[in-house]
Structure prediction request, 505 residues.
Amino acid sequence: MENENLQNYKKIEGLTPKEIVNKLDSYIIGQEKAKKAVAVALRNRIRRIMLSEDIRDEVAPKNILMIGPTGVGKTEIARRLAKLVNAPFVKVEATKYTEVGYVGRDVESMVRDLMAVAFNNVKKEMEESMREDSKPRVEEKLLDLLLPGSEKKTKKNEDEIDIDLSKLEIVPFNGTPEEAQKLMDEQNKKFAEMQAAEEKRIEDEKKSTVSDKTREKFRQMLREGLLEDREVEITVRRQNRMPSMEIITGGSMEDLQSGMMEIQNMLSGRNQKKKTVTIREARKFMTEEVLDSMIDADKVSDIARERVEQSGIIFIDEIDKIATKGGEGHGSNVSREGVQRDILPIVEGSKVSTKFGVVDTTHILFIAAGAFSLASPSDLIPELQGRFPLRVELESLSKDDFKRILLEPKNALTKQYTALLGTEGLKISFTDDAIDRMSTLAEELNSKSENIGARRLHTIMEKVLEEISFDANEHSGEEIKVDSAYVDKMLENVIQDQDLSRYIL
Prediction:
């Protein structure tokens, strides 16, 4: 288990902070300070794993607090960082938690969510590694569906009669000739019964040989893809495993409810049902069933738990919404401060019970983020502030940033819309002046109304391409060029009416 996770770290140990920043640049424009902070934090995690055991546990992660308006890349930086190193990652909203004793989700559920993500990731990795080995077993199951009763059995190959004479009784005889004749008749009768049984075995074996030939013929047809549309009846089982006692002893209310539902389904027989599907669909079900039986769930849990404890990342968004401004402690602020105090031990390091086992949060990296427009980081309780030693302020996006966002990232909006409309046979392109005009409008609208960062580009692009997207199928094979004049034409009425632009853009 530990070796597998060490191998995972060895794959990424060559990632220097500069290389990490370069990879993040492929998706996120600007915010160099934030990128450097997360790159160093990630590199320190790799360095810690390489330390000797006596000092490794003493090195705590340097949690990060990101401060900046919405839409500037806070969440995207954390998400891309997790994908980069294949680390378990979960994003949670601080506002959805309530203080212990109130109705709502408790803060420990964020660790349970992270563990569930890690379990699914490790399970998928194992399934991919075993997929090739599962194919022969899946093939046999499909043949069993196509030829019911033709399952392979162990048979003798000889066609000759083979009678076990040891089953005949040989006893000394001292009686009369009549008694001797009677005994011989009984022995002959037993021998005849054994001979008939053996002849039946040979006949059955001949039939079975014919069945084997048919099975091999169907196997060849199956491999050639000639049976993909043939329908068969299969029994589909729910993937949920038998609920463990950990659900009751240390899980959340959601886990308890889920476990009780699983028990109810098993008792009522609702955890399986018959379906008529094609061989193509049946192969998917059979593959899942075979892979599920091949995977050791306990081993998956152990690897996932180790991965969570050593490389897990929890992103806590909207943390400014639970800050109590000016230290006020009445009304709803009481609950906000209570949530902060509940989060504190999780960030400090504590043991949380999950249905996959107990998870130690000491070395999980926590990245908190918030706009802090109505409150400041100093409004958080001092103990929580101290657990986020690295503070990074993200800058608002400018016109130049918007232009780069529209063109440079791998997932740039212009590339996305070009690909989407390309599926309709419509080729669309954007001129430089169109990109410049949309960037200018995004900056102006963010300054005049609420600053929603790069998300403003989504609303502008949707409005600009509304007519083209609606009639795309009618323009298949055509080429459309979007320029600044077209942008102004589509947004003219909205931009002139300030009240309308607040609602539409």
The radius of gyration is 34 Å. Residues 425 and 445 are 33 Å apart (CA to CA). The chain has 20 helices and eleven strands. The chain has a mean pLDDT of 80.
